[in-house]
Structures are given as C-alpha cells and as structure tokens.
Amino acid sequence: EPEVTQTPSHQVTQMGQEVILRCVPISNHLYFYWYRQILGQKVEFLVSFYNNEISEKSEIFDDQFSVERPDGSNFTLKIRSTKLEDSAMYFCASTMRGSSTEAFFGQGTRLTVV
Amino acid sequence: AQTVTQSQPEMSVQEAETVTLSCTYDTSESDYYLFWYKQPPSRQMILVIRQEAYKQQNATENRFSVNFQKAAKSFSLKISDSQLGDAAMYFCASGLNTDKLIFGTGTRLQVFP
User: Fold this and answer.
1) CB burial class (10 A; 0-12, 13-18, 19+) of residue B108?
2) Which of B22, B34, B52, B104 fits a disulfide with B92 by CB distance 3.0 to 4.6 angstroms?
3) B98 and chain A: CB distance < 8 Å anywhere?
C-alpha cells in the first residue's frame, strides 16, 4: 500500500536553530499539506501546496516557516528560527484531489525545541 | 469559516459493546466532506471513514458506521463490537473539495475488557 514517509521521526533542536522536516508524499498525489499537533491538542492546518506553490496558509504559518518541493518527490517544511512553542508533532499529508479524496498522513515528526 | 466540534473529551466502552462518538460541524458550503480519523498511541493519523455531504446514505466500513444528519450538521461515529485495538484518540474533520482538513479537538476512547 502506498504511504507518506516523513523523516526524521524525532528531532531535538536548540531554540533559534533552523530545522527542515522532510516528507515524501505518494507519487501520483497532487496536493500536499503540513499540519501541526501540539501535545494533547487538536491537529491544526499549517499550509497547503499545489502546482509548486502555496495554495493556502494559516495564521500559524508566519515568515519563519517555508515549504518547498525541491526535486518533484520531497516536500519540506523549514522553520528558520525555532521557538519553544514550535515543539509539536508535524504531520505531512497528501491527496490526489484535495478533500474529495482520502488524505494519507505520514507518521509524523516529533519536534522538540529546547 | 468551517468549524468542527467534538463535545466528548473522553468515552469508554466495554469490549464487544457499541459506542457512539459525537461530532457537529458548521459550514456555509454545500459541497464538503466529513471524516473520522483514528490516532493510536503511535500518533499516526489513520482514516476510519469518509462521507460525502451530497450522499444521503450513511457511510459504513466494517464495524464503523456514521450517522450523518445534514440538516442538523451532525456526524457521529458508531463503533460496533468494540475491540481493545479500537482504543485511541478519534478526530472528526471536515474539508471542502480541494481544501485543507479542519479537525475537532478529539475524543479519547478507552476500551475495557
């Protein structure tokens, strides 16, 4: 069965450092997403990406965040200068045609900012 | 704006019994989709069941079924013959056609032997 792969599974970083979270979506999917889940809270939308550009972003997705799909397979989320409150589980998801088709989620990257 | 509300932070059920998890939503759109996701302790998000708003028939997947009440904007999940492996967080979510998913706050389901 096709799956979305995220690396690393756990990242510990010092406050102020840059981190890059990586995702390999399912190969024939067209829509890509990043979501965030702070421990014990709900899953929150960060950004959606289609046709090599951001299609929508939430208020959380400020200037310290960026996404790119550098080589047609990887989909990355970069946090330029991490803050303590960025500690969360970050999920990548992909779909064939948005919500009308199933969103496949990766296993998540647990980011811990110390 | 879409919103999703899950009013039950925790629910419990005896093994082999049936449990219903509640979800209400709000949207001004006519074309939307509703989902239930399961998040076990591993924290992976697993799709349980999906419902298209334009379909009147309630979706069913084996032991999982929904009660979709469009006028009331209600989308509850029924788990029949509960198993220990059903214990997890369950998130209700809604989405427009090519849009992101909006999640509720989740319901933690405990299953007792």
Assistant:
1) middle
2) B104
3) yes
CB contact under 8 A, A45 and B101: yes
Tokens describing residue B75 = 């989308």
Distance CA A95, CA B112 (A): 35
**Size of chain B, expressed as the number of residues it contains:** 113
Kindly report the nearest CA distance between residue A109 and chain B, in angstroms. 10
Residues within 8 A of A (CB atoms), B 49-78 only = 50, 52
Looking at the complex, report in whole angstroms how far the Cα of residue B80 sits from the nearest Cα belonging to chain A: 23
Q: What radius of gyration, in Å, describes the C-alpha atoms of chain A? A: 13
| pLDDT tens, residue by residue, B32-88 | 999 999 999 888 899 999 999 999 899 999 999 999 999 999 999 999 999 999 999
